[in-house]
Amino acid sequence: MVEISTSLLGAKREKIVETIYDLEMAKTDYFHIDVMDGEFVKNKTHDKMLEYCEYLNHVTKVPLDVHLMVKDIKNYIDSYQIFNPNIISFHCEACKDEEEVQEIIKYAKDKVRRVGIAIKPDTNIEEIYKYLPYIHVALVMTVNPGEGGQMLIPETIEKIKILSEYREKNNLNYDIEADGGVKLSNSKELIDAGADILVSGSGILESKDYAKTIKELRV
User: How far apart are CA 196 and CA 178, in angstroms?
Assistant: First the structure.
């Protein structure tokens, strides 16, 4: 069954503990932590996400799914590995060459349980083929990184399908994560394409019933 990773990017600070509790009761599989540095993407969320991780560390055992949209990847891995995340994903576009990507994969593997590579909507999927045997998660951005609440870009669904077919053809073992604009209206299409993890923020947080929405996203 597909897993649901709830993004806390749009969660309100004054209600964060209540929101975390409600999402845990609603059986989210992960809390998705969107880390932005103001350089790789225009917005900066690092301080807010660290604050939220501190709360999460004290009040829940739901695993963390950390998505680094940053340039200085190693330092941010160090900042978040203390929270024992299940997944840390970084952008291949933030690296200068293939050697640096491989170096960061190895660095992250020494620090966290699972390592993911994320790609922007305009990055050719073939650019990450060489890394797929060494990672645990391929994160496909289905919106342009940097802001929450965007509409899913339909063309990105084809990337998920290609990754799924490539995985089967080459007998590889990685999860495919779809991140951005995920709602009830498109979740089935993403799952049918081969997504294993759906990241949803406003699609869940703006719903009246978290548990009902999360259950329906899985179908």
Answer: 8
Q: Which pLDDT score is estimated for 182?
A: 96
Give the domain range for residue 107. Answer: 3-217
**178: which 2 tokens?**
């779809």
Q: Is 102 exposed, middle or buried (0-12, 13-18, 19+ CB in 10 A)?
A: middle
- Among residues 29, 34, 37, 65, the one annotated as catalytic is 34
Q: β-strands 175-179, 137-141: how paired?
A: parallel
Q: Show the tokens assigned to 24.
A: 């845990």
Among the options 29, 37, 179, 196, which is catalytic? 179
Please confirm, yes or no, whether 209 is among the known catalytic residues. Answer: no
* The pLDDT of residue 148: 67
- The tokens for 32 are 């998705």
Query: The domain spanning residue 136 has which CATH number?
Result: 3.20.20.70
pLDDT for the residue 40: 96
CB neighbourhood size of 197 (10 A)? 23
Give percent of the chain with pLDDT exceeding 90.
96
- Asked whether the beta carbons of 177 and 116 are under 8 A apart, the reply is yes
Consecutive H or E run containing 87: strand 87-91
Question: Structural domain tally of the chain?
Answer: 1
Provide the token pair at 177.
Answer: 């994560």
Residue 148 identity = G
The string of pLDDT tens digits covering residues 42-90 is 999 999 999 999 999 999 999 999 999 999 999 999 999 999 999 999 9
